[in-house]
Structure formats: C-alpha cells, structure tokens
Amino acid sequence: MPPYFESIKSFEDVPITDKGVDTVTFLEAAEGLVKIFVLLGSTAFATVVSDLKGNIAKVRARYDAAPSKSGTLEELVINEPADDKKRTATQGLLWLTRGLSFTCKALQNAQKNKNEELSVAFTKGYEGSLKQFHTFVVKGVFSLAMKACPYRAAFYEKLAADPNGGPPSSQDKVSQDMDKWLAALHNIVTRLEGFYEAGGHAKGF
Description:
Layout: H1 4-7, E1 16-17, E2 20-21, H2 23-40, H3 46-65, H4 73-79, H5 88-112, H6 118-127, H7 136-147, H8 152-160, H9 171-199
Antiparallel strand pairs: 1-2
Helix pairs in contact: 2-3, 3-5, 5-6, 5-9, 6-7
C-alpha cells in the first residue's frame, strides 16, 4: 500500500461539469478524507468520524435509490424533495460539506504555518467552519478533540509512511500532494456552499 495521498481517491479526480460535482467519485474522495482522522490516532475524533461516515451514507443511499436523478450532487439536492420530503440526503450533504470545510481549513492552516502544532491548526479550522453551527455541548467535545491532536511531526510521518514497510515519501512530496488535494477540496466545498446558499437548500436544517 502506498503513502496516504497515493492510496486514496483525490478530490482532483472528481469530475465537475456544467451539471455539477460527480456524486460517486466525490463520495469516494470523501471516504478517503475520513482516513485522515484515523491517522490522527485519537479516540477524541470519534464523533467527527461518525458524523462524516453517517453523512456520506445518507448521500450514498439517495444515489443508490435514484441514480438517474443523482448523477451530480447538485442534481441530487434539486431532485430529492419529490421523493423525500425530509430531504435526508440534502441535509447529510450539507453537514458533510461543513465537515469537509473544517478539515480543509485545518490542514490549510497546518500547511501555511509550518511551526504551529496541529492542535492550533485544527482549532483555527474549527473556529472558521463548524463552530458556528454547534451547541455549547458539542463545542466542548470538539475543544477536547483539538487538544488531543498528535504532534505535527508524527502526523506528517504517518502521511509519508508506506504501511507495507517500503521507503516513505519525502516530506516535500507529501506537502506537494497535500496542497493539490486541498486546492481541489477547497474548490468543491466553495462550490457546494455557494449552491446551498443561492438555492436556499439549507433552510430547515
């Protein structure tokens, strides 16, 4: 198995057309992102992992139920109300986008500030994304999770490591791969946030 960014579906590989963001490859890339929290190695992130997986499952269930209406994420959201008045997948995608935004901002901070520990980068990412949507209790859970982040050096070593014992990637390559992955993720998150805002699709959630 190759190092992390070579072992997952990259957001760079998610097709975006005039109809929107391809649903299937987006979900594959999102599943790869969840593994970031496994590498962080703390049970404090169990809530984050559970939320991400749960929302991915909601979107995938809708796609499986109505693939012809859900080829892109935008089509999925627009077409869902006719079959599901609760808009289960629309809500799931909304919260998934928020979770992706948190992860993106946290890792962008880590990339920009090489001397900061992950706990600082993830705290800044949380404050600029999910925090505004959370209750006092949930904010407390996330605050504990941020403090449980591993040391920066240990995390980046895990990103570079070959699980099969082969030679690790260089840190320069890890950084380059992460920057490309984050740029593509940021583009998709920004697009979805704009889509939800313009169409009023977040109302009621």
